[in-house]
Amino acid sequence: MRKHILSLAMLLFAVTVAFANNDGVEAMLGKIKEISSYERIEKADTTRSYYLMKFTQLIDPNNAEVGTFEQRVMLGHRGFDRPTVIVTEGYGGDYAFGAKRYMEELTYLLDANILFVEYRFFSKSKPDNLNWDYMTIANSMHDYHAITTAFKQHYTGKWASTGISKGGSTTIFYRAYYPEDVDVSVPYVAPLSRALEDGRHESFLEQASCKADRDAIRNFQFHLLENKATLLPMFDNYCASKGYTFYVPTSTIYDLCVLEYQFSFWQWGMPVTEIPAADADDETVFKYFISACEPNYFSRKNDLESFSVQAVKDFGYYGYNVDPFKDYINVDDIEGYYKKVMLPSIWADTVFDDYNYRFVTDFLTENDPKMIFIYGEWDPWTASGVTWLRDRNKQNIHIFVEPGGSHKARISTLRRDNQKEVLDLLKEWMLQ
Questions:
Q1: For FRET with 134, which of 61, 236, 248, 431 sits at 20 to 30 Å CA-CA?
Q2: CA geometry: angle at 269 spanning 406 and 164, to 5°?
């Protein structure tokens, strides 16, 4: 199927591969006053010239006196008259900046320039004195607007925005906040959460796939809890060997990993056939359990602090269905788990602000921008996605769902007829 979409894209878009040069690129970068520094970086893709730069942003877009920070941006230059794709990354950008073979799907399909933007207050895009008050969706969208405004003076083709997961949510927020910045938006597997524990995922997972698969997952969760006395010491030793520390006891982390297993299983499309048999030995069970639910996710020293702060403030997250496990789990430990487990106690009284959820759903209900949404059928994040828009008789908003798909759903994983429909839309909207 991957070969099919690539050949189809080449046929439709008549992509001509040529070695990229940097004629005029560095002169352009020198003219953009917000760029404080840049360097040429090498990628396996020789059709573009790549630069990693620092773009000066206001910490508070409404008050310049608060100061600035440097946001990391990667440019892949294909041509000043080619389309441009701005990738609204929702996290840090190390994986794209450092990877020799990074290529975003939409950029390839459109033979476009790429602007990859690291999210504010993640990784190295942080001010020296980090104040979480300025970590808001509204401020983050202003970052993308500032970058697009600066580069649009030089890139005269059409513009698209795209992102995956939280980056896909960012693509949606960006279009709602600045609807004229881009011509087309393509969010992948993007949730729009309405609360810190959204509430829609639990019932969604009770309907995923078929009963036999759901029962296999549930039975394995019961096995983990029924054999906790034997498996918890192995869990403790594993966490100690990795140097993990937690805000709550490891016994609670163990229970959370058991609950997370169901979500993780469907999010990543794990094979049911790999679930250990009921009579499997403890080592086999534990090895599989850890591979599916690494407890580092809940540890104090991971790379998710910026996300966790945003989740409790205005981005939101999901909860767990504890009811089937009440005989094994202390429900009080799990209730309101996110702020207790993912962040220090200073965040305990933070009240989630659902303004952005309401703002975006109103925008999508009342408007019809050119947008292509990609979802996986059994990805739990689809529960808080925007598939409800399919019932709103939109002409420009298109929803595509990969049958049986997971959080890995992409244009290239859709059915062939859906692939062609997406490519036809992109050709019409971006290349004509």
A1: 248
A2: 35
Q: Residue 1 has what pLDDT?
A: 45
| DSSP-assigned letters across all residues of 132-167 | GGG--HHHHHHHHHHHHHHHHTT--S-EEEEEETHH
* DSSP-based helix, strand, coil % in the chain, nearest 5: 45, 15, 40
185 with 175: CB under 8 angstroms? yes
* Residue 257 contacts residue 225 (beta carbons within 8 Å): no
| CA gyration radius, the chain | 23
Helix (H) or strand (E) holding 131: none
Together in a domain, 333 and 422:
no
- Cα gap 244→223, rounded to integer Å: 24
Examine the domain organization and report whether 245 and 362 are in the same domain. no
pTM equals 0.94
Question: Strand 35-41 vs strand 397-402: parallel, antiparallel, or unpaired?
Answer: unpaired
Decide: 112 and 82 in contact? Cβ < 8 Å. yes
The pLDDT assigned to 272 comes to 98
Domain shared by 6 and 128, yes or no? yes
The alpha carbon torsion through 250, 256, 257, 263 (nearest 10 deg) reads -170
Measured N-to-C along each axis, helices 166-177 and 137-152 cross at an angle, to the nearest 10 degrees, of 70
Number of other CB atoms surrounding residue 210 within 10 Å: 10
3-class DSSP state for residue 243?
coil
Which amino acid makes up residue 69? Answer: F
Please state, in angstroms and rounded to a whole number, the distance separating the CA atoms of residues 287 and 426: 44
Tokens describing residue 179:
């609807």
Give the pLDDT confidence of 26-73 residue by residue, as tens digits: 999 999 999 999 999 999 999 999 999 999 999 999 999 999 999 999
Tell me phi and psi for residue 90, to 5 degrees.
-95, -5
C-alpha–C-alpha distance, residues 121 and 229, integer Å: 41
The dihedral of CA 193, 194, 195, 199: what is its sign?
Answer: negative
Same domain? 160 vs 302: no
Listed as ranges, residues in the chain with pLDDT below 50 are 1-4, 6-8, 10-20
Q: What is the CATH number of the domain that holds 107?
A: 3.40.50.1820
Q: What is the pLDDT of residue 302?
A: 76
Domain boundary among 347, 367, 402: 347
